[in-house]
Design brief:
The structure is a single chain. This protein has 119 residues and is mostly helical. Helices cover 50% and strands 10% of the residues. A two-stranded antiparallel sheet has the order 1-2.
């Protein structure tokens, strides 16, 4: 007897995520992708924002070696601004320090170092 939850092994049960700008590509399980995408669709009003955050979460999971559903559990229940802050934290952990996201305070150099810098 068949069931609704039965996965057909003859069909591909993965989703390919790619970003041409960053030259990034990753194949992920379709059930994990649907879970993450549906969560972000419930939080954000547009499909584009939900899709972008979904790709970002999978990229962070891949770079950190953390399962994507574990990351999803950590951020569930947050509102849009809090969610953006949390994802900025994860993304900043994988980026260069010169390109950090969400930093609003201008860095003040040491007085003596600033004195020696020529414009």
């Amino acid at each position: 007897m068949g069931t609704v939850n039965y996965a057909n092994p003859k069909k591909d049960t993965s989703v390919k995520i790619f970003d041409r700008f960053y030259d990034y590509e990753l194949s992920v399980p379709v059930d994990a992708y649907d879970s993450v995408l549906s969560y972000f669709q419930s939080v954000f009003g547009t499909g584009e924002a939900a899709g972008n955050f979904t790709v970002t979460l999978f990229r962070v999971a891949n770079l950190t070696g953390t399962p994507v559903l574990t990351l999803l559990q950590e951020i569930q229940g947050q509102t849009g601004p809090d969610l953006t802050l949390s994802l900025s934290y994860y993304i900043n952990a994988t980026r260069s320090n010169s390109t950090l996201l969400g930093i609003n305070v201008a860095t003040q150099p040491n007085f003596y170092v600033a004195h020696n810098i020529r414009n």
